[in-house]
Amino acid sequence: MGNKDRVVFVVDDEKGVQESMKMVLKDKYQVFTFDCPEEALADVALEPELIFTDIRMFSMNGLEFAERIKKMKPQVEVVIITAYPDLSSSLRALRSGAFDYIVKPFGKDEVLEAADRALQKRNQVVENTKMIQELRKAISLNYKATTRALVLAVDAKDSYTAEHSRRTSELLVAVGERIGIPDAKLITCKRAAELHDIGKIGIEESILKKEEPLALFELEKMRQHPLIGYQILRPTTFLEEGLSIILHHHERYDGKGYPEGLVGKKIPFPARLFAIIDTYDAITTQRCYGSKLSSIQAIKEIIKVKERQFDPSLVDLVVPHFLKFRKDGYLDRL
């Protein structure tokens, strides 16, 4: 599809902004302008791929509109136009489903760059969606091969993920066997652990591989990976209750985790247990943004943050087995 076939909506209650945006975009895209979100929603049959929308309008505001359009057309990218940029509105824009925002008064290059980046992101989403649909079909036919394919797909974007997934799944089994988790449940949890970071397939490589601390916008996107992974794997039949590991492995016992901010025992048991194992492996592995700890340092760190980050009763249950594994050399062989 050429650019001239790509449909772009501009939604703003100022005619001057509509005309300025149309003049900038019309040489590359089919551009339709609207005075209010309701008019744009009525014309979604035109199949827009990108929508620029003002954040402050007389009827529905741009954030509400972004939420509505993303529910109706998830693959449409939204760029917010605002004259009043601040951190709070930027985060709300991202959480409403917007890809980016531009600030009035804007320049031609800024608009074209925002459009280009948004449409590149849309292309990536469309490709990922097709791949996910194909993988879902294959999952039920060949679990082992498909699991490996999924992990490798993420590993191509984040080389840390594949070995991390293998190590955490093996350590979960080793701990689970010692604390008496039934074999049938342990198999399900192992499968989920192998795929717990699969949602990173929907996160940009620039974020996954960034060595500096993530900006708040980037951090917010990174925190979407448990939900993305859950949405990918929810239709599968072989994961069952193990899905809680994928969705909730970044929840915290004090309720300050994500994606749902669950508190204490409201976090499902498999996810509470796996969070300890996931953290242990993460902090004992060299990452692009931090140095690794020794196994004993990692164990001390986990004990230090129990009750805040982890279920304290589970930490007390698991740590002796970690110490036994350390003494046996098992942790070093993972």
Report the sheet with the most strands, covering strand number, pairing sense and barrel closure: 5 strands, parallel
In sequence order, what are the helices and strands, one letter per element? EHEHEHEHEHHHHHHHHHHHH
Radius of gyration: 23 Å
Q: Strand-residue fraction?
A: 5-15%
- Assembly category: single chain
What is the mean predicted local confidence, pLDDT?
A: 86
Anisotropy-based shape: elongated
Give a verbal description of the structure.
With 334 residues, this protein is α/β, with parallel strands linked by helices. It folds into two domains: 3-125, Response regulator (Rossmann fold, 3-Layer(aba) Sandwich), CATH 3.40.50; 143-333, Hypothetical protein af1432 (Orthogonal Bundle). Helix content is 56%, strand content 7%. The chain has helices at residues 15-25, 37-42, 62-72, 87-95, 108-139, 143-155, 160-179, 183-194, 205-208, 216-222, 225-233, 243-248, 269-283, 295-304, 312-328, 330-333, and strands at residues 7-11, 30-34, 50-54, 77-82, 100-103. It has a five-stranded parallel beta sheet with strand order 2-1-3-4-5, with helices on both faces. Helix 3 (62-72) links the parallel strand 3 (50-54) and strand 4 (77-82). Helix 4 packs parallel to helix 10, helix 7 runs antiparallel to helix 8 and helix 13 (269-283) packs across helix 14 (295-304). 33% of the residues are buried.
Tell me briefly what this model is.
With 334 residues, the protein is an alpha/beta fold.
